[in-house]
Amino acid sequence: MYALLDQRLTRLFNADSRTLLEGRLLGLEKETLRMAPDGYIAQTPHPPALGSALTHPYITTDYSEALLEFITPPLPGPKAALRFLREIHQFVYQHVGDELMWAASMPCILAGESSIPIGEYGRSNLGMMKHVYRRGLAWRYGRIMQVIAGIHFNFSLPDEFWAAFQEQEGDRRSLQDFRTESYFGLIRNLQRHGWLILVLFGASPAVCKSFLDGKATTLPEFDDHTCYGPYATSLRMSNVGYTNRTEKKSGVNVCYNSLPEYLASLSQAINTLWPPYERIGVKVNGEYRQLNANILQIENEYYASMRPKQPPQGNEKPIMALRQRGVRYVELRSVDINPLEPLGVTASQLRFLEMFLLFCLLAESPPLDTEERQMIDDNQMAAALTGRDPALILQRRREPATPLRRWAADILQRLQPVSELLDIGEETRPYAMALAEQREVLADPDRTPSARILAGMRASGENFFRYARRLSEQRRDALQSEPLAEERVRFFTEAAERSLREQAEIEAADDISFDEFLRRYFLT
Fold this sequence. Notes:
The protein has 524 residues and is an alpha+beta fold. 48% of the residues lie in helices and 11% in strands. It has one domain (3-159, 176-211, 242-523): Creatine Kinase, Chain A, domain 2 (2-Layer Sandwich). Strand 13 (393-396) and strand 14 (399-403) form a beta hairpin. It is globular, with a radius of gyration of 23 Å.
C-alpha cells in the first residue's frame, strides 16, 4: 500500500530535495488560560498592555476573555517558531500581575458555566460579531468545553516544491489546483493516521472534576477532585472534550475528498437551519444570542483535527478565500499542551510532525467513504480514551483489524526515509533523532506524556489541579528568570499599541448597524 510513497520519495531524493524543501514554513498557535491566584479561571479583562484582542497579530484571545492565544508568524523551522513563542510568553508575563498562565490543556478550577467570561472585542461590528459568535457557542454547547486549550501546528511547503512535485507527477492542472488537491490528500491521510499523534503526544489523561460540572462520567476517580483514564492519552480529543456532536446528529458530514466537495458540504452546514438552535432564538428581546440558527454559525464552528487554510483578505469569509485562491497551508489542531515541557511543545516534537505531515502528503490517499469515516472516528476515540492499552485494536479499511502498536511501528518505519530526506545538509541529523525518540516512546508506553503525567501525580500525591498548578508555577519562574531583550520588548509593545490604534480605526469607520453588517456578511 506504500508503493506510491516509495516512488515519490525516490524521485525527491534524485532531485535537489534540499532546495525544494528548505522553504517550508511552520507556525504555532497556542492557547493558555489565565488563572487567578485562588486557582480559579481569571475574571479580569484582557490586559490592555497586551493590545487589542481583535487586531493584534500575535496575542489575542480564543473563546474566553481569560483564554489567551499566542500566534507565531510562519517561520523557517522549529527553533525559530519556539523562540518567538517563548518571547510572547515572556512579554505577557510582564503584564498579567499575579495571574498564572495555566500549563495544561484541560482547565484549572471552574465555578460552573457562569464563571467563564466570553471574549470581548470592542464596539465595532466586527468585534461584536466575534463576541456574538461566542455567545452562540455557549448556548449551543455550553461555555465549559470552550476553555479547553491546545496547540495548533501550521505547515506549508514552498512553491518551488509544488512546481517540482507537479512535474514529477506529470500533472497538467494549474499549480493552485494541484497544490490544493495535494493538501486535501494530506488531510485525508492525517485523518486516517492521526490517532498516532494522540498516542505519542497526548497529554491530557486527567481532568479536574469542576470541568465535569456534576455531569455523569464513566471515567474512574483518581481522588475526590480528579477523574482520569487509566490508559487515556488525550481526554481533550475524546468525547470528554470538544466534538461536533450536533453536526453528526443533523446528518451533515464535511467531505475532504476535494475542495469543491469540502466547500459544498461545509456550505450546507452553514446554510441549513437546525430546529434545536431555532428554539434558542437569534435575537431575543433586542439581544443577539447567536449569529444565526443554522447547523454552523460560521465555518470555524466545525471542529476538525486538521483544516485547509487560505489567509482571508479583509472581512473575506474563509470559505471564499479557499474558493478563490485554494489551500495555502494546513492547520493541525490535535496537539495537546504538554505541561512537562517549558512551552508545552518541543523542537523534536515539531520535527516529528513535519515528517508525519510530509508522509501523509506523499503516501497514496484515496477518497474517504462513509464506512472509512466512521472507522476514523472510532479509531481516534479509542486512541484518545485507551491509547496506551497494549491490547488495543484499530480498524482499517479493506484490511484486517490491527493492533495499534503494530500499525504505529509500521508508520514509524515508513517515516525513516522521510527523516533522511529532511536531514539532507543537517550535520546533527535532527529528524532521525526525533524519529528515534518516538520509536523509544512507542516501545515503552510509560514514556508517553500521558503516562508520565499520571505517574507524576501518583508519585507526588497530587490531584490534577495541584500537579498542573505546580508545573505552571515552574514554567512561570523559568520564563521570568530569563528577561526578554529590550529590542523584543519594544517590538511587542509597539505591536500592542498599533493593534489598539487599528481597533479604534475599525470602530470609527463603522457606518451601518450590526443588523445590516450581519445581513451583508452572510449575503456574500
